[in-house]
Amino acid sequence: MGQKRSPLKRRPMLKKSKSLKSGRRSVLRIRRDKLDILFSEYMRKKQNGICQKCLRQVGYAKLQVSHLFGRRYKALRWDEDNVSIVCFSCHLAFHESPVEHVAWFIRERGQAQYDMLMARSRNSGKDIDRAALTLYFQ
After folding, report:
1. Is 50 part of any domain?
2. pLDDT one-digit tens code per residue, 57-66
3. Are 75 and 124 in contact (CB under 8 A)?
């Protein structure tokens, strides 16, 4: 016969993590580096604990950074114009209905800013100076 083939090694496609509260495994773990954490803290502190959508006082620790154009768009990942600071329930609503997220963003900030972000999202983001951003957000 011919050569024996070695069995294929399986590697998980996505990192799985255990949820602390429910004990169930989540499907996807979001990778955050030092700059992501600094950006999140900087933006949440600017908002003084108030959700931008529902205007409830929820406190600094319960606010989340919601990106209009997702974090995979490197040119907008750490752009203050691309994020809204919202509570968990509003953030979940944005993810469940992206059309509503865009409509809300346009009502709040205007069509011109949305169009500008749309144009900037086409940039590759390779020329971003991460060191300068780190200094700015500290």
Report:
1. yes
2. 998 889 999 9
3. yes
